[in-house]
Write a structure and sequence with these properties.
128 residues, alpha/beta, 5 strands
């Protein structure tokens, strides 16, 4: 299973060809989203029409939410790495949601995520 990080979904929403092609090529792999990514995307909407478009794009995806154990691990990661590596609260929670699901996280933010033990990331396509 692959969970998609916010940066990838922003490229999808902006209709970047590489992102669309990668997403379409996943075939039988289960591609889902951390629920916090969906909420972060909604937070970026400037008006109701933009929110409707984002919700329509997100509707086919299953959302995964952090469970209490994921939150405990995210707290430890955030405490240990926020100052040294710039790990944000949302990044810690998204990463541990992926770890808890046994999923790879598709992202371009490897620098922040590399400090999260047990997390497997994948860079899904090339960016210019």
């Amino acid at each position: 299973m692959i969970l998609i990080d916010t940066d990838i979904m922003v490229d999808v929403l902006r209709h970047h060809e590489a992102a669309i092609n990668w997403l379409g090529s996943q075939g039988s792999d289960v591609v889902s989203l951390p629920g916090l990514v969906a909420m972060e995307l909604l937070q970026g909407c400037r008006d109701g029409e933009e929110q409707r478009q984002v919700e329509a794009t997100l509707s086919p995806y299953r959302l995964y939410w952090p469970n209490p154990e994921d939150c405990e691990r995210a707290y430890a990661d955030f405490s240990d790495h926020r100052l040294s590596h710039g790990l944000s609260i949302l990044e810690a929670l998204i990463a541990q949601t992926a770890v808890g699901c046994g999923a790879r996280l598709a992202t371009f933010k490897e620098k922040h995520y590399r400090v999260v033990g047990g997390l497997e990331t994948t860079r899904p396509y090339s960016r210019p």
